[in-house]
C-alpha cells in the first residue's frame, strides 16, 4: 500500500493556509517598514529633524532586525516554530499602538528598534515554517507567494499613508499606529497552526510529528522522507563549519546586496521621486504607490521561473536591477514618466528574486540549525539595509544621481558574489539540499533535475478538514 509523503504530495488546503498565515507576517513586515517612508517627512517637519536624525529614526527598525534575527533564529530552533510564530505578531500589535503616544523622536526610535526585533524574528520563522511544511515541487512557488506578501504590505502602506494625508498635525501618528490593524487579524488566524513535523522529529518527538502529518495528509502519512533531514543538532557554531560556512557567507552577502538599495529606495521613495521632478506632496506619494505596484508584480513574477533554476533567477535579477539605476544616475533631467518607468523596471527585476531570501536559507541548512542560519543571515543582511537607510538621506542631500549609482554598484557586487557562490537547489528535497555533502556543482545540478523529473508526485492526498 502506498503511503502519503510530505515531500511528494500536492499542496493541500493546510499547506496553503500555513503559507498564507506565514505570508501575513510578511505583509505586516512590509507594511511596518514602509509606512515610515510616508510618515517620516511629516515627522521630520513636525520635530525639525536634520538628515542624520531622520536617518536614525528610519533605520532603527533595521538595527532591531539585526538583533532579532541573530537571537530568535537560535531560539526558534531550540523552543519550536509555533511559539515564536505567535509571539512576534503579538509584539507588532503592542508596539504599533504605542507609536501613537510618543512625545519625542528618541521614544519613536526605541519603539522602532523593538519592532525591528519582532520583525527579525518573524522573517526567521515565516520562511522556516512555510518551507518545512511545503512539498518539494511546490516549495518554490509557495514561498514566492509568501514573500510577495511583503511587497503587498509595502504597497498597501503607501496607499494607506497617501489616503491618510491631510492638513492634520498628527497624521504620522495615525499612519504608524495603523499597522496594529493587520497584525491583530494575522494573530487571530495564526492560532491553531501546528508545530513543524520536521522540528518535532528532530527533537525525538516522532509520535507528535506523525500526528501532525496524519492530520494534514491522511492516515497513510509517513515520516520516512523526513528522517535524513532531521538528524541534526542545534548548535550556533555549526553554520560556520565545513560546507555550511560557504553557504552562510553566500546567503548573508546576497541578501544584504538585495536589501541595501531596496530599503534605501522604499524608505525615502517620496523624497527621491520629488528630487527627480515629481511635485512634492500627493503627487510624489501617488508615484510611490504606482512604483510599489510594480514591486508586487515583480515579486509574483518569480513564480514563473523559480523551479527552473534558483541560481539563474538570482543572477539575472541582480544584472537587470543595475541597469535602471545606472540610467537614473546617467540622466541629468529625466521626465517624471521616465523616472517612474525606470523605478518600475528596477522593482520588477529586483523583486523577482526576493523569494530566494526565504528559499535559500531554508534549503541549504538542516532542520537543527535551519532557523539559526536564517536568523543569522537576516541579521547580517539588515546591516546592509540599515547602512542604506541611514546613509540614504545623507547621500541624497548631496546628489540623487550618486545614490542611484551606488545602488547599481551594490547590485553588481551581489551579482559577482552569486556567480561565485550561489548553488542550485531546484528539484531537491530539503534533506538532499541541506546535506553537507550535496553536490551543488553544474554536473550535480543536472543530475538532480534529471532525478526530479523522473519522479512522479504522489496523487493528491486527503486534506485536513
UniProtKB/TrEMBL annotation:
The keyword Transmembrane helix applies. Gene3D superfamilies: MFS general substrate transporter like domains. Signal peptide: none annotated. Keywords: Membrane, Transmembrane, Transmembrane helix. Residues 18-426 form the Major facilitator superfamily (MFS) profile domain. Pfam families: Sugar_tr. It is found in: Cell membrane. Its main location: membrane. The chain crosses the membrane at residues 20-43, 55-75, 84-102, 108-130, 142-160, 172-193, 244-265, 285-306, 313-332, 338-360, 372-396, 402-422. InterPro entries: MFS_dom, MFS_sugar_transport-like, MFS_Sugar_Transporters, MFS_trans_sf, Sugar_transporter_CS. The keyword Transmembrane helix applies. It is a multi-pass membrane protein. Residues 433-465 are annotated as: Disordered. Belongs to the major facilitator superfamily. Sugar transporter (TC 2.A.1.1) family. This is MFS transporter.
